[in-house]
Write a structure and sequence with these properties.
This protein is mostly helical. The protein has a domain at about 130-395. It is about 65% helix and about 5% strand. The chain contains 13 helices and 3 strands. A 3-stranded antiparallel beta sheet has the order 1-2-3. The longest helix has about 45 residues, at about 400-445. It is globular, with a radius of gyration of 30 Å. It starts with about 40 loop residues before the first helix and ends with a helix. Residues about 15-25, about 25-30, about 35-50 and about 425-430 have low confidence and may be disordered. It is found in: Cell membrane. It holds the Pfam family FTSW_RODA_SPOVE. It is a multi-pass membrane protein. It comes from Cryobacterium breve. Pathway: Cell wall biogenesis; peptidoglycan biosynthesis.
């Protein structure tokens, strides 16, 4: 009986991925995980999350954040100096006003940093609700007894002893809403219907609610926000000429039909402001003493805290006329430093607008730029006698809780745009790297 022949054993073929390639690095065995001491995991997790808050951001982010924080701290110092006398006379102590302002700053700065982490899509979802809620609050001011009048302007809402300005919330809502609306219509901005109906129909209606309350200074800033957003969105100037003319006529009518505003305009023109004509009128008192405070400061100032105008000579020394106290106590040098910081703030906004890839981010940043820099220009111009008294504060510096919170909120929105662009850039770079790696791997396999 023959023995059947033995067949050769099948050859074992190693998997393709297991065989090392010529010239490729030898695989390294994974190291065994090191033992973790009890409680060490929680500390590591805490360090990781804490580091994410301070991760490296763009230079535009730190430029805007640093300038903002400097102006806030500088504003608290000047509010303390300019308000100490009036606070004492109001039985709140020398530190009453600055403690209140500092409380708003302690709330506003963390809120600004929290807002800076919100994505772009979040603002798209909340744009309309923000504008509607802000307009409803302004309706309570002008159409209900809850509205509170100060210096002839009904622009404050008083609820349970707490006063705040809904018009400041409308500014913030317009910043977000304009960015969303104009980005949705960026391919239709040559058609006047897609510009006039939403922007001047809805946005102009929100401005009219503030105009009914009589605050012409705030209305001018809000109108600047509308036109500034349209200009930086790329709307042609000839399309802006007609609404600009209509707005100028409305502002003129509101001025001539109000005795309070006409008195301010006449005092700006010098009527009743000369001692030779008799006693100085009440409307001339504030601009004259503001000019005298600036003039007495000279180049180096009289020293921080040594102002004479704040001793009940200059009304609104810690608010609308705080720049006069800055010029008196810190002199020309201090005034120039403040001007330089606002120029630096404008440069940060322009840099963010130039580098962003989103139409929404660019328009909203432009609206914040016109709001803050335009308002600072108007406030300083009033103190210098370039404009009549309009009653707008110096952003981030003047006393005022609502204005400080909304201003920090607007800057937080712009900061969120810088973080969003940076994350999108990093994501696109990662995607390109992964694509290159996949292409190289497929080439090696072939």
């Amino acid at each position: 009986m023959k023995t059947p022949p033995r067949l050769p054993a099948p050859r074992q073929v190693a998997p393709r991925s297991a065989a090392p390639r010529l010239g490729s690095p030898r695989p390294v065995a994974a190291a065994a995980p090191a033992p973790v001491a009890p409680g060490a995991g929680a500390g590591t997790s805490t360090r990781i999350h804490f580091g994410r808050v301070f991760k490296v951001e763009s230079t535009s982010y730190f430029l805007l954040l640093g300038t903002t924080l400097f102006l806030v701290v500088f504003g608290l110092i000047m509010v303390l100096s300019s308000s100490s006398v009036d606070s004492y006379l109001e039985n709140t102590g020398f530190f009453g006003t600055v403690l209140r302002q500092g409380g708003f700053a302690l709330i506003g700065v963390p809120v600004m940093l929290m807002i800076s982490h919100l994505p772009l899509k979040f603002w798209q979802r909340v744009a309309w609700p923000m504008l509607i809620v802000a307009c409803l609050m302004q309706c309570l001011v002008v159409f209900t007894p809850l509205g509170y009048e100060i210096a002839g302007n009904t622009n404050w809402l008083s609820i349970a002893g707490v006063q705040f300005q809904p018009s400041e919330a409308i500014k913030l809502a317009l910043v977000v809403w304009l960015g969303v609306i104009l980005s949705q219509k960026q391919n239709k901005l040559d058609d006047w219907r897609h510009v006039y109906i939403p922007v001047f129909g809805v946005g102009g209606g929100a401005v009219m609610l503030v105009l009914i309350g009589g605050d012409l200074g705030t209305v001018m800033i809000m109108a600047g926000i509308l036109f500034g957003a349209l200009f930086f969105a790329g709307v042609r100037l000839r399309m802006l000429a007609f609404p600009l003319a209509v707005g100028a006529v409305l502002a003129l009518l509101m001025a001539v039909t109000s005795s309070n505003r006409m008195t301010r305009i006449l005092s700006f023109m010098g009527a009743g402001c000369e001692e030779l004509d008799g006693p100085i009128s009440a409307a001339c008192w504030q601009p004259l003493h503001g000019t005298w405070a600036l003039a007495s400061g000279g180049v180096f100032g009289v020293g921080l805290g040594n102002s004479k105008a704040k001793w009940s000579w200059l009304p609104a020394a810690d608010n609308d006329y705080i720049f006069a106290i800055i010029g008196e106590e810190l002199g020309l040098i201090g005034a120039v430093v403040v001007l330089f910081m606002f120029i630096l703030l404008a440069f940060a906004f322009l840099r963010i607008m130039r580098t962003t890839t989103s139409m929404q981010a660019r328009v909203s940043t432009a609206a914040v730029l016109v709001w803050l820099i335009g308002q600072a220009f108007v406030n300083i111009g009033v103190v210098l006698g370039v404009f009549p008294v309009l009653g707008v504060p110096l952003p981030l510096v003047s006393a005022g809780g609502t204005a400080l919170l909304t201003t920090l909120g607007a800057i937080g929105i712009v900061l969120s745009f810088t973080r969003g662009d940076r994350s999108n850039t990093a994501r696109s770079n990662t995607d390109r790297s992964n694509t290159s790696l996949r292409a190289a791997s497929s080439g090696d396999d072939q």
